[in-house]
Amino acid sequence: MTNYEIMFIVKATLDDATLNTLVKDVQKLITDNKSKVIEFKDMGRKKLAYPINKEVSGFYYLMNVEASHDAIREFDRKLRINENILRHLILKKESE
After folding, report:
1. Count of domains in the chain?
2. What does each of the 96 residues of the chain score in pLDDT, given as a tens digit?
3. Tell me, what CATH number does 74's domain have?
């Protein structure tokens, strides 16, 4: 298992119920693939540096996870096709 840091931005135009469901589903993508979420931070609503798909702000989230390469590949694939996720970034953390 490898440690990864994942940041993703969700559309700010979503209602609270949809937003909470989406965030839980994103975390579930990790835990369903025999991996675990070590830390999860809601960084709040922020203005984007530039418009993305006509959106000017979004909700930022940061996760530290311990996952296999296959779990991260599946996670990346599903986030790419989700239209409510504006951007995501997955970084492999160095071993300490």
Report:
1. 1
2. 899 999 999 999 999 999 999 999 999 999 988 899 999 999 999 999 999 989 999 999 999 999 999 999 999 999 999 999 999 999 998 866
3. 3.30.70.60
